[in-house]
# Entry
Amino acid sequence: MTVVTRFAPSPTGFLHIGGARTALFNWLFARRHGGEFKLRIEDTDRKRSTQPAIDAIIDGLKWLELECDGEPVFQFSRMERHAEIAHAMVAAGHAYPCYATTEELAEMRAASEAEGKRFQYDGRWRDQPQSAAPAGVRPAIRLKAPETGQTVIDDLVQGRVTVENAELDDMVLLRADGTPTYMLAVVVDDHDMGVTHVIRGDDHLNNAFRQAQVFHAMGWDLPAFAHIPLIHGADGAKLSKRHGALGVDAYRDMGFLPAAIRNYLLRLGWSHGDMEFFTTEEAIRLFDLADVNRAPSRFDMIKLESVNSHYMREADAETLLPENFALVEAEIGRPLSEVERQRMTDGLPSLQSRAKTRIDLKTGSLIYVDGGPKALAPKAAALLQTAEAQSALEAGATALAAIGAAQWDAAAIEAALRDAAEAEGLKLGKLAQPLRAALTGSDASPSLFEVAAILGPVETLARIRKAQAQQAPVPSY
RNA sequence: GGCCCCAUCGUCUAGCGGUCAGGACGUCGGCCUCUCACGCCGAAAACACGGGUUCGAUUCCCGUUGGGGUCACCA
# Structure
């Protein structure tokens, strides 16, 4: 039997981080077993389902590189099939029409609340003959659930979970308007799609019992269930927007890499010994539901950043550069010249090891734009404001100007600057920091020698002269 | 509140009866060093509590406490 998993979000919002992890686990499990990973859009709630949400889910999965097998199934389009099953269940005596009015239901709810118990339908139409049906009222169809005994789920993550059938009431399968409820639709779709493993958030664990009853009533094979713990916010409460339960598009915009997000999500609630980093191949080979933790875990943005910076360092130029050019161009509001692109390409290794995110990389790349960063960072401005700094700039400029254009490289620049520092009786840092401020507009950057080498003699000298012109020395006392 | 689930450093976790309770992120020192990162070295930091079972419990059982989930003609 081939493994079939599915990711079944309702399109009422973006693809958030928890959903992304659920999708990842489903995808990994399917790939691990050479099976299929399907997407089902649960859009039966017409009021809340939107096309933008559907797009966000599909785009999000695509960005995360979790490709689905086959076309997505839209649950709403299968409404007739769901209704057909509901009626078959009535015919088989596993379900029955219920004519209880909204008012009666409200009374039942009030009554159970008064007793301090949860709401349970009292089954008043369960054994009524057809003749008792009031004229002109369309009934809802309810499951004739077992009243005694227990329903058991052997969950792949949670273990054996048992609930007394007396705890479960006769739930609605088909609404009075003929539309299916989620409980019915899920079961019918999972069965029809051949889903073998239902891997989802454990907020659905309670639903699994009710769904199992429908499977049993229909005589269908029960899929295996794996209810994975939810992701919580830093404060331990259910993850909300406030905590970073943003759409995956937001993480993309913050400059995170899909591989990093996948790796972070994989290690949230799952582990394989002490391993922290997994290639996609390793993740597929090693993923096992038995290693999924049963406790909820907290979302930690700092750790995500750390994982991302690891992937930033590992990434090759091909995955980093094109998008980086686009980000820089958006920042400066014009296309990059070939020279500028070449500088950023040459400077990439040093830049990427300093970047936690693509945004950091973009910001760092600005030193290679003609003229350098627009504004001088406060600390850099301070570095330039002393008379010593001005003489250091002058000494540096003189030393650099003496290097022939043909000999202009990092090694020659380093040698010239070290010599100049020695001649001036300065520690290299005293000479380098003002120069760094002049060249990069910052007190922190990749190697000064490398930056100057990449910038070339003309741009390098121009930036130093500009810094000299702009910074009137402040007298020191 | 009923039902269900969960419980190791601040966080993510390893552990599957006998360990100096390991790793990662973060934090704090230090090294490297033209700055910042990287890298390296080191430090502080956890078995929620109470009963059992056992020669021996972080590990098995029960309870307490705490946390979470769920209780619709929403999904």
